[in-house]
Amino acid sequence: MNDLFVIYGLEILLMVLLVSVWGAAGLAANGLKYAAFRPEAAVRWKRAARRGIKTGLALVVLWCAVMAAGWVRLGWLFVMDRVAVMMPLMMLPALAVARLALPSLARGGAMTALSPVLVASSVHAMLLGTVLAAWLLLFDIPSIPEFGEAAASLAVLAAGAALLYLHHRRRMSVIRIRRPGFRVMLLRQTALLFTAVLLLAAWHWRSLEASRFPDAMSMIHPETFDFGNGPARAGHSGHQARARHPAAHAPSHPDGADGGRAVSVTELTGPQTGEPDRRFVLIAQKQTISLPSGHAVEAWTFNGQVPGPSLVVREGDLVEVELINRDIEKGVTVHWHGVDVPNAEDGVPGVTQDAVMPGQSHIYRFVVNETGTHWYHSHQLSSIQVAKGLFGAFIILPSGESAGEREPGGDPAAAEPGRDPDDAAGSTPAPEPGAGPATGPEAGRPAAKDGLAAIDMPVFVHDWETEDGPVTVLHLPETGRNPAIPPGADVRLRLINSASLTKVFTLNGTAFKVAAIDGWDIHRPEDVEGRRLIIGGGGRYDVTFAMPAHPVTLAVHGEGPVASDHVVFGKDGRGEPDTRIGGDVLDPLAYGAPAPSPFDEIARFDREFLMVLDQIYFGHYNGRAGTLWAINGEVFPHTPTFVVEEGDLVKVKIVNRSLLYHPMHLHGHHVFVLSRNGRKPEGSPLWLDTVLVEPGETWEVAFRADNPGIWMDHCHVLEHAAWGMSMHLVYPGIVTPFTVGDASGNHPE
After folding, report:
1. pLDDT tens for each residue of 404-438
2. At the topology level of CATH, where does 278-586 sit?
3. Is pTM beyond 0.85 here?
4. Architecture, CATH, for domain 222-268+597-735
């Protein structure tokens, strides 16, 4: 079992026990004040208080031991807030309890007139410290503790302890004058409980209202700027994460960082003149589709199909895509996931454009300078729109290959220059099965041999909400569920996870290679068999194999050994499925052959950033209450904004302290993997655009800041992005005229 689950699970259990035990000890300690009037109960109260305190102190020690184990097993970054902020909240009052309460409660220990006050106030202070620590753990976790946060928590504890002491002294003086009745005591306790409930309800309502986004909001917030702690550049010194910086350095400032003119994202476009090499039309519209499971669902589609049409281009092509929104009420955009387009073409509403509303259109133009398997999807309310079907494959072939040849299923939406957009859907005939790209330089690319055409097809895995609950589906081109593939043919399956949840793939019946990950070739991939492939939301694996004479089964698994869906490849499109999940997980950091790294051992990074991924078990976000997903203890729009300058060599350390996977996707850049959990890659150099960080993992990645703009960096579990796990990377001097909120209709996730 993952160490993080054990340590954090024990922490939550211990916190519940601590609150319960100290609450019970507090009740017993409170009873000691009335010992003069109830001598028969004084012995029981004393015994109960003594046992409760000893149990509580033992639990505090155990909690500290668990944190120490977390420090050893996981590292300082996983427990730094616990040690720096939460531990003093419990250790200081624990010392007071041990010093002030236990001696008076010991067997044979003498009780003075002040003893009940000292016992009750110290135990209640311990309860207060524990409640404060539990509150931070559940509602306001300080991922990267600052002195001010620790001091504020201790100040609350100190003020509370002082008030408790004064309260108990006053109560003792009152008790000496008149004997309180049972009904009065019951009413007092009831009133306190009722007041606590009212305060909690008031906090909940006030927090809900305070969390609502304004109708118009900039995506850039200078108060969140983080310049990194690397060496000084361009007049900036290194800074620690979450430091505050003057607005003069902000991209939203009218002047550039060097005092020159600010550049709008609208100027950071692709070529605006010249005849495009490839032109496409994408029409966003609602359509009822039938899933292989037999369920009919209302989908939001591009060109009436899910997935949308596969857009196939060639490296170096000037691509033009016209997006037309027919009937998606909240608007739609297109983001080119994994393609490092100019900033204006990125398709993020409120940052690079306004959402395209019904009846409107928008044109994207850019030159593709990379190869590989990528995909496109809407970035407007993406947790909803991608789930409803607004996505498709974007395949970039090497320059030596033809983009006009296609895999089975063809490209029914590939619009020829000058074609009427209303005729875009379904008007281009599909080639015959088996037609596909010819040879090319990409590692592991299928090539025609022995008179057999290579097979090259994108395969999406997607989760659909149906009337019977969630259904996971493997989507292939329009060749049917079980394509016929002749034995001996070379096959390339481009696996794309358009679902938010992490998926496990198996390919049974043949040895295979993983030729590319996130569109980047693996150096010298070797044959493997029976290995499981784990692909996070937004991630892609290219799998190649030679078709054997017997059937091959591609299966996708969720939780558990039972396949969620499968496809059988055979010479006649038939065969018994083999959906076994056995076999080890293929580790991408240990696969392929080593090669020279673009960043040598002595690389001097200009900027170094820390990104701590956390969950806030209960919080408020834009008028909603639930689990929040935080970066450095904050949710958007308070998450950090990493500031880089063009040409910077940047390193980012990503730490996942939550209990779920987070595929972190940086727009406009690819990152190079330096290490995972302190270990460097042992196989092929690995470039990613979506880094799948498992619970308890620490990744170090690097990239060159070579694409000026304002770029999102968010979790591709899109529900997590919709609940706060989103931030930005910005270049100084870049501004945006677009806003987010109901006033503009822009809702990026």
Report:
1. 443 333 333 333 333 333 343 333 333 332 333 32
2. Immunoglobulin-like (2.60.40)
3. yes
4. Sandwich (2.60)
